[in-house]
Amino acid sequence: MPILQPIVNLAELLFQKGITDVVVSPGSRSAPLTLAVARHGRLRVRVMADERAAGFVALGMAQQSGRTVAVICTSGSAVYNLAPAVVEAFFQEVPLLLLTADRPHEWLHQRDGQTIDQPGLYGTHVKRSYDLPADNTHADARWAIDRSVNEAVNLSQLLPKGPVHINVPLREPFYPASDEPFRYERPRIVEVLPASAQLAAETWHQLQDDWERADRKLIAVGQLPRDPALLTILRQISDEWGVPVVGEIISNLPRNDSFITRTDTFLAGMSPEQAEAFRPDLLLTFGGSFLTRSLKTFFRQYPPRQHWHVQPGVDRVVDPFQALTRLIPGEPTPFLQKLFADLDYQHFLQGDDEEDSRTFLHHWQTADRQAARLVHQTVSDTDSPLTDWSATQQVLDHLPTSSVLHLANSMPVRYANLCGIEERQQIAVAANRGVSGIDGCLSTAMGAALATDQLVTLLIGDVAFFYDRNAFWSAPVPPNLRIVLLNNDSGHIFRMIDGPGRQPELETYFETPHGYTARNTADDAGLMYMVCSTKAELASRLPDFFQPGDRAKLLEVTTDKLANQSEFANYKQRLASLLAE
């Protein structure tokens, strides 16, 4: 048996466990792992020279597919460079399998190169960390490797999903001799059968009774992938029961005549008297994080009498509104479908009208429509210059039907949330709102484009874009990727925040102007490059920009940060006037 046969077999084990994609960063200590996946033939292996970018590319692929993606890197600081993607995957509940090569542990603190204390390095930001045996010729060691890898892949997929770390100490020689056989032995597979949580009948009937007794009910949806079945049942509940359904662009709730999606505008600065008309008796939530401060602040200041949260696992109490009263295990779609099915027939028999609930819904929907008019007035002035906000509105209006939209953090995701997506567009929205950093937004979108044939559009600011340019290094850029770069030559969000916006050090220490354009980056990466600085130019570029082609495309939208600031200040003034009415 070749000396590293258990490591060779590891690649086959990954494949048999359903992993099809592996992202590799080159290195010598990791060579046995790299060769094992590269020569396998049935694994899709992509090379990324920068480990930080590699981690986020894998994250984007796993976001898109829902399946575990493996990442391989060499020892030392390379392992730490995966950390930003690891923490984002952990808090966003995205499945990754991190395979980090290591030196045998007896060489730690012995002045040997690229040697750090790697076992457990990611701490509580992975679901579990494994450390494989360095000496793998004994039968027990081979058993331990197979068992650990089986368990790790299973764990990454068990709800809530997330990243799992396998540290792999390796001894030389790393490279097979020219006459050494390279074959894959079929591993033993440990299958975990799915289990579905089912509430006891008595508990379910109690939930129904409590739901029915609450006069004013509201559903708020956090970050979730697009789910047509979920959208259907939410619309039924809103239309037939008069329950407001509130969400944001990262909730994948589209703009329509049922859902309330402009809370960032109309919940800001409400008086206590106004707020009481919007306070629910029972708040039902599910999904991940909420984007806007206005929504979170409202429910913290005006908490409901009851707050139920539905989530697949109940190992953590998630209570962002500081009002949680009931944690319900399960997936939101089947929970809502059963609730609707069980109660709707009962409503029909009883002839319930629920007039008070419809009055409550009317309050929310009226405010939502007023907010829509305010946003439209802000961005539709044809005489005003092109701004980041008005450019975002134009881009979203032109998105191809049934495509994917990735939103970078800082201002792009906020502008997009103010604009929204129309239901007819059928757009799937993704964003890194687990930790919400700007690092890796470009790499994540590239990973998504690698994992789908659909067009993937990334809306990104200049600081996030230039921070993550290594996304273009080593991996061919998929031709279905479209990048809209909002370049205002600054960290624009700091001009919008009251604190740094009032400081004399704003430009030097917060905004950090750079003077860069993306032209040379686009040329180096082989992207089709376009640029515009007016509304007319943007309108003329967008049709061709979204056309399919054999190359990825980058559209650089240059704006003036002072014009952006003036437009946002005008919006806030109009908002204050609206709330004062």
Automatic annotation (TrEMBL):
Thiamine pyrophosphate enzyme N-terminal TPP-binding domain residues are 10-118
InterPro entries with a match to the protein in the record: MenaQ_synth_MenD (IPR004433), MenD_middle (IPR032264), THDP-binding (IPR029061), Thiamin_PyroP_enz_TPP-bd_dom (IPR012001)
Record domain Menaquinone biosynthesis protein MenD middle: where: 205-344
Q: Which GO terms describe its biological process?
A: menaquinone biosynthetic process
Gene Ontology MF term list: 2-succinyl-5-enolpyruvyl-6-hydroxy-3-cyclohexene-1-carboxylic-acid synthase activity; magnesium ion binding; manganese ion binding; thiamine pyrophosphate binding
Name the catalysed reactions. isochorismate + 2-oxoglutarate + H(+) = 5-enolpyruvoyl-6-hydroxy-2-succinyl-cyclohex-3-ene-1-carboxylate + CO2
Q: Give the co-factor note.
A: Binds 1 thiamine pyrophosphate per subunit.
Task: Recite the UniProt keywords alphabetically.
Answer: Magnesium, Manganese, Menaquinone biosynthesis, Metal-binding, Thiamine pyrophosphate, Transferase
Q: Which Gene3D superfamilies match?
A: 3.40.50.970, TPP-binding domain
Q: In which pathway does it act?
A: Quinol/quinone metabolism; 1,4-dihydroxy-2-naphthoate biosynthesis; 1,4-dihydroxy-2-naphthoate from chorismate: step 2/7; Quinol/quinone metabolism; menaquinone biosynthesis
The record's Pfam families line, in alphabetical order, gives: TPP_enzyme_M_2 (PF16582), TPP_enzyme_N (PF02776)
Q: Identify which cofactors the protein needs according to its UniProt entry.
A: Mg(2+); Mn(2+); thiamine diphosphate
What's its EC?
Answer: 2.2.1.9
PANTHER family cross-referenced by the UniProt entry: 2-SUCCINYL-5-ENOLPYRUVYL-6-HYDROXY-3-CYCLOHEXENE-1-CARBOXYLATE SYNTHASE (PTHR42916), PROTEIN PHYLLO, CHLOROPLASTIC (PTHR42916:SF1)
Task: Please report which protein family the annotation says this sequence is part of.
Answer: Belongs to the TPP enzyme family. MenD subfamily.
Query: Oligomeric state and partners?
Result: Homodimer.
Q: What does this protein do?
A: Catalyzes the thiamine diphosphate-dependent decarboxylation of 2-oxoglutarate and the subsequent addition of the resulting succinic semialdehyde-thiamine pyrophosphate anion to isochorismate to yield 2-succinyl-5-enolpyruvyl-6-hydroxy-3-cyclohexene-1-carboxylate (SEPHCHC).
Designated name of the protein: 2-succinyl-5-enolpyruvyl-6-hydroxy-3-cyclohexene-1-carboxylate synthase
Tell me the gene name: menD
